[in-house]
Structure to design on (530 residues):
């Protein structure tokens, strides 16, 4: 009996180990493959200059700016709306058909492929609202795309705030809004920040939704109505047009490092915030 | 003068009839204890005084609760105002994840404009009133989560006092505390009744006997009997009260 049990334990343990190992290995392989090919292309010139000869020479500076620009517009729209929705769903709404409808819509929204958002953004923002290929059209499309992710993340962050805090606050004569603003949101803050970073990661990495809405002009965008070629779109065009593998990998490497740095940022702010009380 | 008068109070959670025709009178500046077995409705009765039951879905109330003569269940009654007048201490001390100072200043900051100096005085007085000042005066800006359980419970009471309530409700305030911290809490409660009316729910009969002036026995959503604590524990009128305090059930 004991032998059989040990044997089963062995199989269970080793298959789990294998699964974990496989995940790490495949991710590590991709990372190594891209960085080893891409980092050699990355230089100060690559990061700070405009592309020349359709991107086969020069740098990617305008595409970095475009990426950040479009993402900033998307976040400026999506964060307040998502936060409001999450607060409303968690703190105000009681179970009802309306609440179920909102949740159902969010689930549907989360399941839509990004190219469909792109198509919608193209017909609605670009054509119908006459925004043209532009930073706003791209930003708004991305904003809608990240809504479900962001609302979900915010809801989960808010749900981690103990019920006792809310009760204590209400029992001290605070109303619901005061409780949300002074207790719930500050307590949920680390989780909220993590949600925002995850959403930024999605927005920065998105290509299908922006290629149809922000356009692909290589110029530096200045006004929100200008066209913008994000890094992912630039990468896509470099690869599909066979313009420059080296620059495509270089762009990919910069993109990956950017996202990694972003994720690092949350762990740092989290550690700083933990245990440190707010004082005025 | 009764600080609290509960008259013909019926409370329902959806289908469940949780409080049945409850009458209760709590004299001002005394400690009134509510005792009874788990699930008998004593916490529900306590929470109907500051209308915390309003937060529960499907909760319905009939009858009236008077706090210093004012019916708090009349339509349009300002619940926020009520909760300023009737403070509450919960079973598990739940200091907010902020500094000790900010915890105590939370209520005053909600309800009024105070200068920094006034706020400091208010916080110091509240902390002195719960005998916590000397222990925390050098670390007011440190997180309240670093305090011990007993200190946290006294901090939470200071947070209630800073709002200047008329009545303090306590829902098994000592249930998460060790015997020494419980002893200090009981001393504090006796000290506080000089200025406040206190209603306390407790599982601990000795505790009720030690600190309360009046005791009510609650069973199956009814107040079986209310009387001076000494009388309830020595010569209860109702056989069910006697059975409970002699430990035959509950």
């Amino acid at each position: 009996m004991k032998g059989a049990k040990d044997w089963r334990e062995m199989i269970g343990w080793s298959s789990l180990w294998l699964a974990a190992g496989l995940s790490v290995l495949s991710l590590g392989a991709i990372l190594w493959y891209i960085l080893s090919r891409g980092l050699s292309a990355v230089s100060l010139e690559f990061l700070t200059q405009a592309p020349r000869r359709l991107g086969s020479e020069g740098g990617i500076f305008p595409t970095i700016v475009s990426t950040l620009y479009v993402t900033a517009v998307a976040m400026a729209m999506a964060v307040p709306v998502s936060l409001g929705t999450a607060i409303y769903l968690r703190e105000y709404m009681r179970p009802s058909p309306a609440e179920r409808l909102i949740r159902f819509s969010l689930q549907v929204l989360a399941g839509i492929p990004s190219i469909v958002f792109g198509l919608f953004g193209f017909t609605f923002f670009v054509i119908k609202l006459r925004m043209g290929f532009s930073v706003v059209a791209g930003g708004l499309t991305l904003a809608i795309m990240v809504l479900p992710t962001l609302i979900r993340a915010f809801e989960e962050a808010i749900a981690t705030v103990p019920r006792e805090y809310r009760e204590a606050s209400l029992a001290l004569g605070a109303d619901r809004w005061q409780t949300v603003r002074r207790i719930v949101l500050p307590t949920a803050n680390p989780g909220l920040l993590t949600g925002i970073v995850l959403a930024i990661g999605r927005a920065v990495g998105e290509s299908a939704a922006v290629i149809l809405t922000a356009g692909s002009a290589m110029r530096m965008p200045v006004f929100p109505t200008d066209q913008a070629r994000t890094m992912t779109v630039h990468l896509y065009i470099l690869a599909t047009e066979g313009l420059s593998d080296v620059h495509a990998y270089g762009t990919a490497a910069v993109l990956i490092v950017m996202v990694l740095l972003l994720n690092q940022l949350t762990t740092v702010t989290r550690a700083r915030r933990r245990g440190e009380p707010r004082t005025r | 003068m009764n600080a609290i008068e509960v008259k013909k109070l019926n409370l329902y959670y959806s289908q469940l009839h949780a409080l049945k025709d409850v009458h209760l009178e709590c004299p001002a500046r005394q400690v009134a204890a509510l005792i009874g077995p788990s699930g008998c409705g004593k916490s529900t009765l306590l929470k109907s005084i500051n209308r915390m039951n309003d937060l529960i879905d499907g909760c319905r109330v009939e009858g009236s609760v008077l706090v210093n003569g004012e019916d708090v269940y009349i339509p349009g009654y300002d619940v926020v105002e009520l909760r300023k007048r009737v403070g509450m201490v919960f079973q598990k001390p739940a200091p907010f994840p902020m500094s000790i100072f900010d915890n105590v200043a939370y209520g005053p900051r909600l309800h009024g404009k105070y200068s920094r100096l006034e706020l400091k005085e208010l916080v110091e007085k509240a902390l002195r009133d719960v005998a916590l000042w000397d222990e925390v005066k050098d670390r007011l800006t440190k997180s309240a989560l670093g305090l011990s359980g007993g200190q946290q419970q006294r901090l939470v009471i200071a947070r209630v006092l800073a709002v200047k309530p008329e009545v303090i409700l306590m829902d098994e305030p000592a249930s998460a505390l060790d015997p020494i911290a419980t002893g200090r809490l009981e001393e504090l409660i006796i000290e506080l009744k000089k200025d406040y009316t206190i209603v306390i729910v407790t599982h601990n009969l000795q505790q009720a006997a030690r600190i309360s002036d009046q005791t009510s026995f609650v069973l199956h959503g009814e107040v079986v009997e209310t009387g001076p604590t000494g009388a309830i524990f020595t010569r209860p009128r109702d056989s069910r009260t006697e059975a409970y305090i002699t430990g035959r059930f509950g």
